[in-house]
């Protein structure tokens, strides 16, 4: 893994950072290769339970670097892209949180459409420039359609460079789960990641599979697979861990959102 992606593991939380700030973290081939290596590392590391993905500098990701020679999506050697392919076709069922620290456009949506949820800095913006430059917006809005109302993703895609979705508006339509001050972004994402990692790992992964199944197949079909998801995400150890917590009498001090 090179320098265009940083990987840091703190406890059970991995932070994966796009690190081409001089190019607004645009995706060139080197960054794509480093991302592949990062997600392989995350998937294979039994100590990494949750990931935060973010960008260095002023942008989350400016999409594909048209001067950088990035290989188009679909040419990866990994498995057939699926509902949690994380842009390169590698299936991962560990939770991933996006911390959007600035501009996110075009190819950034491959990642944002695949994460479990998004937290955005209050100055973050979202847009898709494809049509402005004579290109069809296809994979990007397809990925985002699962978390964005039809009319909103349609407007964003058709308006091109003429309009940007603010973090506030993205929160209002449900695309973003939380908006925080820029200097609080990683703390907010870290707070969520650490709480998720506090639960039994297998139960979290089973839950991720079940909810993605509802999105991919529809709730009626997913219900028929419900016990399969329960089986994937349940073990005697995880149940014993949960029962031990309940029996201890300790109760989590929750917060409202």
SSE inventory with pairings:
Blueprint (H helix, E strand, L loop, with lengths): L4 E6 L2 E6 L10 H16 L5 E6 L3 E3 L34 E5 L2 E3 L2 H5 L4 E5 L3 E3 L11 H6 L5 H10 L5 E2 H6 L5 E3 L4 H13 L3 H17 L1 H6 L1 H7 L3 H12 L10
Parallel strand pairs: 2-3, 3-5, 4-6, 5-7, 6-8, 7-10
Antiparallel strand pairs: 1-2, 8-9
Structural summary, described in words:
The protein has 257 residues and is an alpha/beta fold. It has two domains: 5-196, 2-enoyl-CoA Hydratase, Chain A, domain 1, CATH 3.90.226.10; 199-247. The protein contains ten helices and ten strands. The protein has helices at 29-44, 108-112, 139-144, 150-159, 167-172, 185-197, 201-217, 219-224, 226-232, 236-247, and strands at 5-10, 13-18, 50-55, 59-61, 96-100, 103-105, 117-121, 125-127, 165-166, 178-180. A hairpin with a 2-residue loop joins strand 1 and strand 2. Helix 7 (201-217) packs antiparallel against helix 9.
CATH superfamily of the largest domain: 2-enoyl-CoA Hydratase, Chain A, domain 1
The CATH class designation of the largest domain is Alpha Beta
The helix content, as a percent range, equals: 25-40%
Catalogue the unreliable spans.
Answer: 73-85
Compute the number of strand runs: 10
Q: Mean pLDDT across all residues, rounded?
A: 88
SSE ordering: EEHEEEEHEEHHEHEHHHHH
Report the C-alpha radius of gyration, rounded. Answer: 18 Å
Q: Architecture of the largest domain, according to CATH?
A: Alpha-Beta Complex
What is the fold named in CATH at topology level of the largest domain? Answer: 2-enoyl-CoA Hydratase, Chain A, domain 1
* Tally of separate domains: 2
Strand order of the largest sheet: 1-2-3-5-7-10
The rounded distance between the terminal residues' Cα atoms is: 37 Å
Number of helical elements = 10
How much strand content do the residues show?
A: 15-25%
**Which structural class do the helices and strands define?**
alpha/beta
Biggest β-sheet: count, sense, barrel? 6 strands, mixed
* General shape: globular
């Amino acid at each position: 893994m090179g320098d265009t992606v940083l990987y840091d593991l703190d406890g059970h939380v991995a932070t994966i950072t796009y690190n081409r700030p001089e190019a607004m973290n645009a995706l060139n081939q080197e960054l794509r290769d480093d991302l592949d290596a990062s997600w392989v590392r995350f998937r294979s590391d039994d100590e990494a339970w949750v990931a935060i993905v973010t960008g260095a500098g002023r942008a989350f990701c400016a999409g594909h670097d048209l001067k950088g020679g990035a290989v188009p999506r679909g040419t990866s050697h990994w498995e057939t892209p699926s509902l949690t392919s994380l842009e390169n076709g590698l299936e991962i069922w560990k939770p991933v949180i996006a911390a959007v620290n600035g501009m996110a456009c075009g190819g950034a949506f491959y990642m944002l459409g695949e994460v479990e949820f998004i937290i955005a800095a209050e100055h973050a913006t979202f847009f898709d420039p494809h049509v402005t430059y004579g290109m069809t917006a296809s994979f990007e809005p397809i990925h985002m359609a699962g978390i964005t109302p039809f009319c909103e993703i349609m407007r964003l895609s058709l308006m091109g460079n003429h309009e940007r979705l603010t973090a506030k508006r993205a929160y209002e339509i449900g695309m973003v789960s939380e908006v925080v001050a820029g200097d609080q972004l990683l703390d907010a994402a870290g707070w969520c990641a650490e709480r998720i990692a506090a639960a039994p790992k297998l139960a979290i992964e089973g839950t991720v599979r079940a909810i993605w199944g509802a999105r991919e197949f529809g709730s009626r079909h997913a219900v028929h697979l419900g016990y399969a998801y329960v089986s994937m995400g349940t073990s005697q150890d995880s149940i014993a861990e949960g029962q031990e917590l309940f029996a201890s009498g300790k109760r989590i001090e929750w917060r409202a959102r």
